[in-house]
Amino acid sequence: MKVGLVKLIVPRFLFLIFLSALAFTSISCTRDSESGKKLVAIIVPSQDNPFFKAEADAAAARARELGYRVRIDSHDDDAFRQDNLIDVAIASNASVLILDNAGADASISAVRRATRAGIVCFLIDREISAKGIAKAQIIADNAQGARLAGAAFAREMRDKGDYAELVGRESDTNAQIRTTGFHAEIDKVPTLSMVARQSANWSQSEGFQKAETVLQAHGNIRGIISGNDTMALGAIAAIKASGLHDVVVVGFDGSPDALQAIRQGSMAATVLQPAVKIARMAVDQADRFLRTGSTGQPEHQLIPCELVTRQNADQFGVFEQRVPE
C-alpha cells in the first residue's frame, strides 16, 4: 500500500469515529434534554405474577403522571440479583427506589447502600427487619387479612371437618404472618382439624401437586386454605381433577383469576391486598419527600386488607377496590 493512501485512510477512519461519537453524544444529549426528569427505579419480585405486575404498573403509571422517568426490573426473589439491580439504580442516579424486596434480612444492606447513595427508598408489600433506613415501609396488613381469611374459612366449613393448608415460601415473612393469622381464627374452633400442611412456594403448579397428594392421602378433606391465590387455584384444579365436590377453598391476594373463581363458585373467598393503592401511595410519598423533605407519614404503614366473597366480588378489580372507600 502506498504511503499517500495510508495517510488518506487513517485520518478518514479517525474522522468517522469522531462523527460516530458526536452522533452518539448528540442522541444522548437529546434524550437527556427530552427527559430532564428524575428517575424512579421500581424493583419487584416478578412481572409474570399478576400481583407484582399490578404493583409495578401502578407505581410506574403514577410516577409518569407526576413527571418522572421510570424503569422496572425484577429480582425473582434472588437477593444477589436484587443487589445488582440496586447497584444499577445507583449508577443510573435514580432519585427514588420503589422496592418489593427479596428478603426481610437479606435486603437490609442493599437498601442501606441505596440510601447512602442518596436514593430515597420506599418499600412496598414486604418490609425489612430494620427501621430508619427506608423513608417508608408501606405494606398490606397481612395479619389482619389472614384473620379475615381464617374466620371466613371457618364459617364456610361450618366449623367442622378436616382441612389442609398450603403455605407460601418458608423464607418469606408474609408466609409466616399469614399462617399465624389463619390459625389465630381457625384454632378457636376445636372441631376443625388440620390433617396436612404443605409448602407450595407460592406456585400454582406446586399448589396443584401438593393438593393432589393431600387429597389422595386424606379422602375426607372438606377444605383447603392457601397462603395465596396462585396456590389456591392450583388446589382448585386438583380438586376438579380428583372428581371431588364441595371442598371449601380460601385464598389470599385478590387476584383477577381468584375473583373469577369466586364468581363461578369454585373458590369461597379471598383477601384482597390493595397492591395498587400501596404502590401509588409509595410514589406519592416519594414525590412529596423530594419536594418538601418529608413524607408526612410514619415509616411503617399498615394498609387494611378486604375480604372478597361471592356477595361483593363485583366491587373489586385488579388488586383494588372499584367503589369509593
Please state the structural category: alpha/beta
What series of H and E elements makes up the topology? HEHEHEHEEHEHEHEHEHEHEE
Number of domains: 2
Number of strands: 12
Strand content: 15-25%
**CATH homologous superfamily assignment of the largest domain:** Response regulator
What is the CA–CA distance across the termini? 81 Å
Biggest sheet architecture = 6 strands, parallel
Q: Can you count the helices? A: 10
Spell out the key features of this protein.
325 residues, alpha/beta, Rossmann fold, 2 domains, 4-stranded parallel beta sheet, 10 helices, 12 strands, disordered N terminus
Question: Could you please describe the fold and organization of this structure?
Answer:
This protein is 47% helix and 19% strand. It folds into two domains: 35-140 and 274-302, Rossmann fold (3-Layer(aba) Sandwich); 142-272, Response regulator (Rossmann fold), CATH 3.40.50.2300. The strands form three sheets. It has a six-stranded parallel sheet, with helices on both faces. A four-stranded parallel sheet has the order 7-6-8-9, sandwiched between helices. Strand 3 (96-99), helix 4 and strand 4 form a beta-alpha-beta unit. Helix 3 runs parallel beside helix 4 (108-116). It has helices at residues 3-35, 50-65, 79-91, 108-116, 142-156, 173-186, 204-217, 229-241, 256-264, 275-292; strands spanning 39-44, 69-74, 96-99, 120-124, 136-140, 161-167, 192-199, 221-226, 248-250, 269-272, 300-303, 306-309.
